[in-house]
Amino acid sequence: MKGLRERLGPWLETETEKMRGMTARQRFSYILTYYWLWILGIISVVSISGYMIYRAAFAVKDYWFYGMYVNTMENGGNGSPLWRDFVMYAGYDTSVKKVEMNASAWFDPSVRGGTNNSYYQAFVALVESGDLDVVVMGREGLQGIGSSGRLLDLKDPKCAAIAEKYADRIVTCIPYDTEYSEDPVPVGIDISDSLLVTKYHLYEDDCVLGISAYTQRPESAEVFLDFLFSEPQEAK
Description:
Layout: H1 2-19, H2 24-58, E1 63-70, H3 81-90, E2 98-105, H4 118-129, E3 134-137, H5 139-147, H6 160-165, E4 170-173, E5 185-190, H7 195-198, E6 208-211, H8 218-228
Parallel strand pairs: 1-2, 1-3
Antiparallel strand pairs: 3-6, 4-5, 5-6
């Protein structure tokens, strides 16, 4: 720090001497001409630091619900008709917590090499972080995810209400880990005739909803399922 002061001292004295006989306007013009880059840098640093502090202190961090719709060409993300209708149905205050919908992921665990991409890695990270609540995709793909152990076993007591309510729609898979079970495990709910297909058209064929293995909000998954079947279903 002493070395910095020693270097800055002569420079400050020189600059002060240069501006001693200038008017206020001339001083402003001089500083702007020779130091505008420094000024811009300081403003940028202060602005970015202020934004980061604001985000850390005041930004909404937690979720009411986080859903991922895999392999769809339609708009099902934040701000979409699906997002708006669900937020209204559930009565979620998005200034308190977020409702996140991701409809831009592409991967297929049912085919060779179908998980060798960044979308799948992002999905795994969301599951393991506990942020993701539900994932929706075709039956075979979802069964592939379920076999890997990344979906909640619907026999788990914390989703007993869901398993009972949608018992006639249960989709099962055989786990890769035979120590967990050698029998089919219920991991999904068939929603092929739900609003996700008939009204919002995110999928044209079969689609199944699975609950993330590490979700802390199984009740949000139940609210979402109830929403998907909240209107009379149209014929496809």
